[in-house]
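in:
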């Protein structure tokens, strides 16, 4: 298929904008947004550049997003990079998996994959989230025996040990060796990615429109939602 030079040039401008900002909003850059949404040729070119960069280009509502693939360690994060950011300096694999479990728990507290919108609440308190993490881990250990953990590859007992090894500090310590500090560090990271609003003085967490849009289009897919529930050890009819 032959493309006009202007189409190629515009597609490059759109892709570079996405590389720089990770998203393209209609109200921020109307010309580029309309070029992508109204011209199939340009849209195909942008998507092709995304594929070459191990990423996908998706439009949710009036926002176009650049979403790095799981193996894209340049635009996204590798396991080693995430471990360094989310865990303490001597963090182990179980600390890393615990951090991912925390994020999954946070998502399921806000979204349930049902109805016209997957979002079920407007905010959650940090203390409530901390309690839910503990409850989910204990439920996972109770529901899965050692053999089932090995078969599923989900080590609830190991993650629970890592969580209980963290000290508890009612003064709200930000040290990563405490439960409060470990959770705080994860929440700060998610806020920097534009996924949540973390209001520290009120110990309140809210989701952003970016995360809401992504979850509506992805978590509402029952296959994806079932996978999340399986990781958390939750039965769908709960």
């Amino acid at each position: 298929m032959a493309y006009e030079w202007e189409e190629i040039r515009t597609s490059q401008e759109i892709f570079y904008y996405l590389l720089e900002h990770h998203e393209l909003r209609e109200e921020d850059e109307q010309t580029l947004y309309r070029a992508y949404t109204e011209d199939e040729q340009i849209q195909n070119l942008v998507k092709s550049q995304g594929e070459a960069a191990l990423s996908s280009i998706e439009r949710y509502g009036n926002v176009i997003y650049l979403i790095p693939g799981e193996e894209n360690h340049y635009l996204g994060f590798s396991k080693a990079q995430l471990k360094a950011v989310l865990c303490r300096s001597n963090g182990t694999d179980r600390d890393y998996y615990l951090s991912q479990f925390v994020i999954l728990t946070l998502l399921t507290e806000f979204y349930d994959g049902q109805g016209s919108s997957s979002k079920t609440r407007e905010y959650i308190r940090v203390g409530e989230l901390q309690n839910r993490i503990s409850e989910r881990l204990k439920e996972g250990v109770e529901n899965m025996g050692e053999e089932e953990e090995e078969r599923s590859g989900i080590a609830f007992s190991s993650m629970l040990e890592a969580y209980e090894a963290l000290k508890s500090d009612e003064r709200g310590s930000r040290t990563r060796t405490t439960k409060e500090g470990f959770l705080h560090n994860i929440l700060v990271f998610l806020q920097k990615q534009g996924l949540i609003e973390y209001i520290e003085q009120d110990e309140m967490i809210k989701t952003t429109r970016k995360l809401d849009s992504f979850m509506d289009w992805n978590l509402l897919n029952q296959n994806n939602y079932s996978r999340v529930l399986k990781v958390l050890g939750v039965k769908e009819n709960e």
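note: The chain has a mean pLDDT of 84.
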